Amino acid sequence: MRHGPVELRLIRAKDARSLQHELITNRRWLQPWEATLPGLQTGIDMRVSIRRLLQQYRDGTGYPFVMEYDGKIAGQLNIWGVMRGSLCSATIGYWVSERFAGHGITPAAVAMATDLAFNELGLHRIEICLRPENRPSLRVVQKLGFRYEGMRRRFIHIDGDWRDHLAFSLVREDVPEGVLSRWASGRVPADWGAVPASDLPSTAAPGDAGLPGDAAAPGDAGLPGDAGLHREHGMQG
């Protein structure tokens, strides 16, 4: 899938070295949003993580992608926690390298992934959860018209503690024309992602400074995007 210079493709085993390099290089940038395991130290082994992600793909419980910008690996996006049956839902998570922030990579990738989920994977609902302090990631979901659903208290273990998260979602009926098309044409409802001031912190978190309005989020999403991710889930938090 491609939108301009942004491409979203299935992760490959040979991506391990490049992704591990980006994760290590961007450690300070991503750490405030990276999921952790209570009482345990987590390391980075992308070879193991990719094997698990591809097993989820084969099982139909997850869809792991690499985000590229002009042919260079810029980060990861995962559709994870796929539920079938009466739910037909999943969560999107992601992380983006600091050197690619400000290029509109994350909004384009999330829009393409959501369209894929609705139009090809047969899902009905997509959710993104992010820490209130992660203003760049908040701008992503608001830019794409995800609806704010409320605060989830101490929802995910992030950067060493249980953290509150803001929950956003879209259902298929919200976007009959597609998320990417609606965003690209400027038809996103302005108020769908509005968050009450009482749910937001008064100060920005590390990583917010200097990011333009369409900046890529540092990592709310899927891995440990806002990823212990359990690294196979993208960056959460």
Give a quick precis of the structure.
Helix content is 25%, strand content 27%. It is an alpha+beta fold and 237 residues long. It has one domain: 3-Layer(aba) Sandwich (Aminopeptidase), CATH 3.40.630.
Helix content: 10-25%
Q: Can you identify the CATH superfamily?
A: Gcn5-related N-acetyltransferase (GNAT)
- Arithmetic mean pLDDT: 87
Query: Roughly how many Å is the radius of gyration?
Result: 16 Å
N-to-C SSE string, H for helix and E for strand: EEHHHEEEHEHEEH
> Which secondary-structure class do the elements indicate?
alpha+beta
Overall tally of domains = 1
Which CATH C-level class is it? Alpha Beta
Commentary on this structure:
By secondary structure, the chain is α+β, with helices and mostly antiparallel strands. The protein has a single domain (2-233), classed as Aminopeptidase. It is built from six helices and eight strands. The protein has helices spanning 16-25, 27-30, 46-59, 105-119, 135-144, 179-184; strands at residues 2-3, 6-10, 63-69, 72-83, 89-96, 125-130, 147-158, 161-171. Strands 1-2-3-4-5-6-8-7 form an eight-stranded mixed beta sheet, with helices on both faces. The two termini are 25 Å apart.
Task: Write out key terms for the chains shown.
237 residues; alpha+beta; Aminopeptidase; disordered C terminus
Describe the SSE topology.
Blueprint: E1 2-3, E2 6-10, H1 16-25, H2 27-30, H3 46-59, E3 63-69, E4 72-83, E5 89-96, H4 105-119, E6 125-130, H5 135-144, E7 147-158, E8 161-171, H6 179-184
Parallel strand pairs: 5-6
Antiparallel strand pairs: 1-2, 2-3, 3-4, 4-5, 6-8, 7-8
Helix pairs in contact: 4-5
